[in-house]
Amino acid sequence: MQTQDVRTLIEQMSIEEKAAQLQQLATPFFKGASDRGAVTGPLIGMDVSDDAIANTGSVLGACGAAETNRIQQKHLEENRLGIPLLFMADIVHGYQTIFPVPLAMGCTWDLELAGQSAAVAAKEASVSGVHVTFAPMVDLVRDPRWGRVMESTGEDTYLNGVFAAAQVKGFQGDSGGTEVGKLISCVKHFAAYGAPEGGRDYNTVDVSELTLREQYLPAYRAALDAGSEMMMTAFNTVFGVPATGNAWLMRDLLRKEWGFQGPVISDWGAVKELIPHGVAEDSAEAAEKSLKAGVDIEMMTTTYIESIPELVRNGILEEEVIDEAVERILRLKQKLNLFERPYRHADEALEQEVIRSQEHLEAARKTAADSCVLLKNENEVLPLQKEQTVAVIGPFADHTDILGQWSWRGKPEETVTLVQGLKTTAGAGNILSAEGSRVEETDETLLKEALQAAEKADVIIAALGEPSEWSGEAGSRTDITIPRAQRELLARLRKTNKPLVSVLFNGRPLDLQEITEHTDALVEAWFPGSEGGSALADLLLGSVNPSAKLTMSFPQSVGQVPVYYNHFNTGRPKSEGRDGDRYLSKYLDSPNEPLFPFGYGMSYTTFQYSGFHLDKTEITRKDTLNAKVTITNTGTRDGKEVVQLYVRDHAGEAVRPLKELKGFQKIHLAAGESREVAFSIKEEDLRYWHPDMTYRSDRGTFSVMAGPNSRDLETGVFKLSDN
Ligand code: GLC
Known about the structure:
Elements: H1 3-12, H2 15-21, E1 23-26, H3 50-54, E2 58-60, H4 65-78, E3 86-89, H5 102-106, H6 111-126, E4 132-133, H7 157-172, E5 184-190, H8 209-216, H9 218-225, E6 230-233, E7 237-238, E8 241-242, H10 247-257, E9 264-265, H11 274-277, H12 283-292, E10 298-299, H13 303-313, H14 319-335, H15 348-354, H16 358-369, E11 373-377, E12 390-393, H17 418-426, E13 431-434, H18 444-456, E14 459-465, H19 484-494, E15 500-505, H20 513-517, E16 521-524, H21 532-540, E17 607-614, E18 618-619, E19 624-633, E20 639-649, E21 660-669, E22 674-682, E23 688-689, E24 695-696, E25 700-707, E26 714-720
Parallel strand pairs: 1-2, 1-10, 2-3, 3-4, 4-5, 5-6, 6-9, 12-13, 12-14, 14-15, 15-16, 18-26
Antiparallel strand pairs: 7-8, 11-16, 17-19, 19-22, 20-21, 20-25, 23-24, 25-26
Helix pairs in contact: 1-14, 2-13, 2-14, 6-7, 6-16, 7-9, 12-13, 16-21, 17-21
């Protein structure tokens, strides 16, 4: 079907058919769906006429070639004009082969790995009939109380942008998601969903335009620049107006300033939520405001099909606005060739061949091993020796709940647990296991069994964490410690005076003060996915040398939150005060610094930084500054190091962060090997948003810093001149 034909088709559509084309419904509403499902939760009370369903434009959450083909076939029999459905779903960190959650993926600092993981997810989902994935989620996050930090790649704008682009390329390939094995990417949630007050999901977001543009918007832009074809609105307010009804955000900025032409979809129910937000009196006003803001698809509420015909008849909405929205959706269907091939790449035979293939499982295992962060390793307790007897103790020792949220097609029974991974890799005879405690309750019997196992072991692994449903959507917590029962178990294990390794399964930065005190070694495993146990075995037994680095700061306590590396200096910086000074920006009861900083992670080997230097002390706007530093692997094992480059603008027209990540290189060094790493800095790297909303650099003094994390840095200084 050609573009002109799309317009011809729109002319044939009634206003009711146009309105329904803008509707997205979940699978229980579709005839032919194998599981009409218990109409529970948000679906309760949604009454949608058969006629509206027959004209609906897209489906949420259907997958499986048989399922999507069955729904599509029924739909084409009932749709007057033969307009096929689009199938959209949340393929966030894998389809059935589940990869580490994105916050873990970010810790790999490996863009190629991120792209490969997205490509594997796309391959499995596309043969299963999915056309569009609601990913990547690129919301900047600074508050670990918010459960959805697990879906983000962290607290840094630049890093989130490059990871967003890598994931979009992995999902879509080079032809915008149209080729076999690829998906259309719908980036989310626009905008600044990651900044809710109190870290409470769906809560108010109130950031300045300067902060919005400087910190929160760039990663969405990076995803669109990488070709993401769709955008999803956020639940929250921006400048006091809910994003889904925010014409400044969606029309002035997204469409006019950025030139985005693709479809915009609301988040689940976000259109009708304009009513409880308090900017719409009823469904009709919610529909009117969302459409005027440029939201093309209404997900899982029905204000559009209820209100559009009358809003147009009453002249409140121009039909042209509706036609534009319909055209964007039909164009996407046309781009995917759905009019000619409505069943597209859904293929039951291919599903058998592609899903959870050995190649995919290996990719998940490698990614997971490279995403686990070594945070402590006293007396080189790690890596373990194969001949050691190891007691794996804790509620997560043999637990399959290590896939993390948004892994709905992943099967716990197919997940490799920590104990299984160790037994397979090290030999079952060497591995003992005991639950030790429940996730939240102490149990004397379990404790006794655990201490007996510990008695027989040379080394103890404490497998601790939070259940996956304690993070993810609507998973906000005010207490970000490991549950008390598990901390008490760890303290009892510490008393055995045996070498003690703690492995953590969690979806957010936690307050780990009590954990770090009672353990010799500490591995942050996040939710490592289908091959989590195998990957951890590779890491703990040393066949993989850890190289991951944190992309979100771990606070000393929740009282510090938000704590992030690229903060401002303030007028009374503690770092510049004298000992005993009271009147400084500091706490009476806590350090200012996080327990583990952004960019931090250890290796089984050691790296030395030397010879840091800049090739100029002053540059013009046309020059390039070159910074070089030599890294030497001074240990006995080969390893990978993430060399990070930060810049500080010492005096701007607005306050500027003490440091901002401007580049990184992940390098492999053999034991004893040295390598010089070079970074170039141009004037455009020094630009920022000014109070007058212009994006430009200022002349003046800058610092350039290089090092293994955001704290331990070598510094050089240069000037940017005016000419
Ligand atoms: C949810 C999430 C969003 C997801 C959508 C569809 O409420 O906020 O990230 O893509 O609904 O499942």
